[in-house]
UniProtKB/TrEMBL annotation, chain A:
Transmembrane segments: 226-247
InterPro entries in UniProt: CHP02186-rel_TM
Superkingdom, natural source: Bacteria
One matching Pfam family: Alph_Pro_TM
Name of this protein: TIGR02186 family protein
The species this protein was found in: Thermodesulfovibrio autotrophicus
Annotated signal peptide: 1-22
Alphabetized UniProt keyword annotations: Membrane, Signal, Transmembrane, Transmembrane helix
Automatic annotation (TrEMBL), chain B:
Keywords per UniProt: Cell membrane, Membrane, Transmembrane, Transmembrane helix
Family, per entry: Belongs to the 4-toluene sulfonate uptake permease (TSUP) (TC 2.A.102) family.
Pfam family, one: TauE
Lineage, highest ranks first: Bacteria, Pseudomonadati, Nitrospirota, Thermodesulfovibrionia, Thermodesulfovibrionales
Subcellular location: Cell membrane; Membrane
Sequence intervals crossing the membrane: 12-38, 82-100, 112-131, 182-206, 213-236, 242-262, 274-298
Tree of life domain: Bacteria
GO cellular component: plasma membrane
Name of protein: Probable membrane transporter protein
InterPro entries to which the protein is assigned, alphabetical: TM_pro_TauE-like (IPR002781), TSUP/Inactive_protease-like (IPR051598)
Topology term for the membrane: Multi-pass membrane protein
C-alpha cells in the first residue's frame, strides 16, 4: 500500500512538473473582425512562446456542424447532373491549420486523430450520409476537401516561423482570413509538440461579426422579412423608374 | 472596390455586378426578355449561392422591367388588355409549376428535368426562330405563308369568348390567351425564370402579335411575375440580397433603356435572329455543361 502511494505521488509530481515546463501561449492580434459594407477579408497574425525545441501547430476552426451538399453523377451514361443531396455531419465549416513542419514529420497519427489535427484526422470524426462503404466515404471526403479548399474555407500549410530566444521558442504565422468565412466565433488552438506528441495546448478566440448598416440590413432580411420584401420591391421599382425618367429625353429622340 | 453582401454573405467587386446588370439589362430592353435565364447562372459563377442568385435576380428583373415597360409604354408598345389576360393564366401556371417542382423534388432528379427542359425549350425556340428569321431576311415567301389560315388559327377562331385586342390588332378567345399564359407560367416556374424568352416567341408566332407590341407586353407581364416572386422569396426564404440587387439594377436599368433605344433602330427580323443566336448559344452551353465531367463532384445545395 505504501509503495502504491509513493508511486502515485511520483506520477503526480511528474504531471505537475510537466505542466510547469509546458508554457505555450497563443495571441491572435486581430481577434475581433468586423464585417462592414466594404469588408473583403482580413489578416490574422498568431504568435506565442513555447519550450525550446518544440514544434508548433496552430488550428483555427468553427464549431463542428452539419452541411448539405449536392453530389454530381453521370446519368444515363451521358450527362452530368446533381443526383442526390449529401449530408456531412461533425465537420467544421472553417478549418485552417498551420505548422512549423509537415504534420507527418512531427506528429504521431494517434495524436493527430485525438486532437483533430489534419484532414485525415477530421475524416475519422466526419459522418457522410448516404454512403455505402469506406471507399465511397474516402472518395466523397476527398471531394469535400477539394470543395472546401476551393471555397477558401479549408487550408493546411507548414509555414509557421519559429526562433529560439532567451531559452524559449517564439513562433509566428500570418493568416489571410477568408471573406467567405461567415460571422461567428472561431477557436484558435496552439499545440506544442515534442517527440510526436502534443505536450501542451493554449487557446484563444476570434470573433467575426457584422456591424453598422450591414448588420441592420441582414437583421431586417431575417427578422422583419415582410417589411424587407416590400422595401426590396419599392427600391427596385424606384431605381427602374428613375432611370426611365432620366432616359425620357433620349427616348423622345426616337 | 469591394462590397460585402448582407444576405449572400460574400464580398464582391462592385464593378462585376454592375457590368453584369448592364449586359443583361441591354438584352432585356432589346428583346423584351427578363434575362433571368442568363443572370442566375452568371451570378452563381461569381460565387453567389444558387438560392440567393435566383431570388436576387427576380428583384433586379423588377427594376429592369420597370424601366423597360416604362420606355415601351411611352412608345405605345404595351397591350395592357392582353397583358392582364396572359397574367391571369401565368399566375395560375406559376402556382402549378411550383407544385410540380415540389412533387419532382420528392421523386428526385429535379435538376436533371430542369436542365433538359432548358435544352428542349431553348433548342426548339432558338432553332425555329433562327430558320424562320433567316429565310425571312433572304426572301419574303414566309410572309405569304403567314397570310394562309392554318389549322391552329382556324381552331382559335372557333373558340368562344372572342376578344379584340385593339393595340395588338388581333382577335383571340380569352381561353387562348389565358391558356398560353398558363402553359408559359408552368414552364417559367419549372425553369426558375420570368418567362419572357418563352412568351416572346409564343406571342409573336402563335398569337400573331406585332413584334414591338410583343416586347412591351412581355416586359409588362414579367414585371408583375417578378414582383410576386421577389416578395415571396424575401418573405418566405430570406434569399433576396438588396445590395446585390441594387448593384445589378444600376447596370440593368441603364442597359434596358439603351436596349430599347437600339431595338427601335434594328429591324424585327434582325432582332429575332440575334435573339435566336443568343438562345442557341445558351443551349449549347448547357449541353456542354451536361456532358462534361466537373472538376469537383460536389456543389452547394440550394436554388432549384
Amino acid at each position: 500500500m505504501k509503495k502504491l502511494m509513493i508511486f502515485f505521488a511520483l506520477i503526480f509530481l511528474i504531471v505537475i512538473s510537466n505542466n510547469a515546463w509546458a508554457k505555450i501561449s497563443v495571441i491572435a492580434n486581430h481577434d475581433h473582425i468586423t464585417i462592414d459594407l466594404f469588408y473583403h477579408g482580413s489578416t490574422v497574425s498568431v504568435k506565442g512562446q513555447a519550450q525550446p525545441g518544440s514544434d508548433i501547430v496552430v488550428k483555427i476552426t468553427s464549431p463542428d456542424g452539419s452541411q448539405v451538399l449536392r453530389k454530381k453523377g453521370k446519368v444515363l451514361d451521358l450527362v452530368w447532373m446533381s443526383v442526390e443531396n449529401l449530408q456531412f455531419d461533425n465537420v467544421p465549416n472553417l478549418y485552417i491549420l498551420r505548422s512549423t513542419k509537415e504534420l507527418k514529420d512531427i506528429l504521431k497519427e494517434q495524436e493527430a486523430v485525438k486532437n483533430k489535427i489534419g484532414y485525415s484526422a477530421l475524416k475519422n470524426f466526419a459522418q457522410i450520409t448516404p454512403v455505402s462503404n469506406e471507399n465511397e466515404k474516402e472518395e466523397l471526403w476527398n471531394e469535400f476537401i477539394k470543395f472546401k479548399e476551393k471555397s477558401k474555407l479549408y487550408n493546411v500549410k507548414a509555414d509557421i516561423a519559429k526562433s529560439e530566444e532567451n531559452g524559449q521558442t517564439h513562433y509566428y504565422t500570418l493568416i489571410q482570413w477568408p471573406y467567405q468565412a461567415p460571422p461567428g466565433i472561431y477557436n484558435v488552438t496552439a499545440y506544442e509538440i515534442k517527440d510526436g506528441k502534443v505536450i501542451d495546448t493554449a487557446q484563444t478566440q476570434i470573433n467575426v461579426e457584422k456591424v453598422g448598416i450591414l448588420k441592420m440590413l441582414s437583421n431586417m432580411a431575417k427578422n422583419n422579412s415582410l417589411f424587407y420584401g416590400i422595401v426590396c420591391i419599392l427600391i427596385a421599382i424606384l431605381a427602374g423608374f428613375s432611370v426611365g425618367v432620366l432616359f425620357k429625353k433620349a427616348g423622345k429622340a426616337h | 472596390m469591394y462590397i460585402y453582401l448582407p444576405v449572400a454573405l460574400t464580398s464582391i467587386n462592385v464593378f462585376l455586378p454592375v457590368c453584369l446588370g448592364l449586359a443583361v439589362g441591354l438584352l432585356s430592353g432589346l428583346f423584351g426578355v427578363g434575362g433571368g435565364w442568363l443572370m442566375t447562372p452568371l451570378l452563381m459563377m461569381l460565387g453567389i449561392q444558387p438560392a440567393v442568385a435566383a431570388a436576387t435576380d427576380a428583384a433586379q428583373i423588377v427594376g429592369a422591367s420597370t424601366s423597360g415597360t416604362y420606355a415601351h409604354w411611352r412608345l405605345g408598345n404595351v397591350d395592357f388588355k392582353m397583358g392582364f389576360h396572359l397574367l391571369i393564366g401565368g399566375f395560375l401556371g406559376g402556382l402549378t409549376g411550383v407544385e410540380i417542382i415540389k412533387i419532382l423534388r420528392v421523386i428526385g432528379n429535379v435538376n436533371f428535368l430542369i436542365k433538359i427542359t432548358y435544352v428542349i425549350m431553348l433548342g426548339v425556340i432558338g432553332t425555329f426562330m433562327f430558320i424562320e428569321s433567316l429565310s425571312k431576311l433572304k426572301n419574303k415567301t414566309v410572309e405569304k405563308k403567314d397570310k394562309k389560315e392554318s389549322g391552329i388559327t382556324k381552331f382559335f377562331k372557333s373558340l368562344p369568348f372572342q376578344i379584340h385586342y385593339k393595340k395588338s390588332g388581333v382577335t383571340h378567345s380569352i381561353l387562348v390567351t389565358a391558356t398560353v399564359g398558363y402553359i408559359v407560367g408552368i414552364l417559367a416556374a419549372i425553369m426558375g425564370v420570368g418567362g419572357g424568352f418563352l412568351m416572346v416567341p409564343v406571342m409573336f408566332y402563335l398569337l400573331k402579335m406585332p413584334m414591338n407590341i410583343v416586347i412591351g407586353t412581355s416586359l409588362f407581364q414579367i414585371f408583375f411575375t417578378c414582383v410576386e416572386v421577389t416578395f415571396l422569396q424575401a418573405y418566405i426564404n430570406h434569399t433576396v440580397d438588396i445590395l446585390l440587387a441594387i448593384l445589378l439594377l444600376i447596370g440593368s436599368s441603364f442597359g434596358a433603356q439603351i436596349g430599347a433605344i437600339i431595338g427601335k433602330k434594328i429591324k424585327g427580323e434582325q432582332l429575332r435572329i440575334l435573339m435566336a443566336i443568343l438562345v442557341l448559344m445558351v443551349t449549347v452551353k448547357i449541353i456542354i455543361e451536361l456532358i462534361t465531367a466537373p472538376s469537383i463532384l460536389l456543389s452547394p445545395a440550394g436554388g432549384h
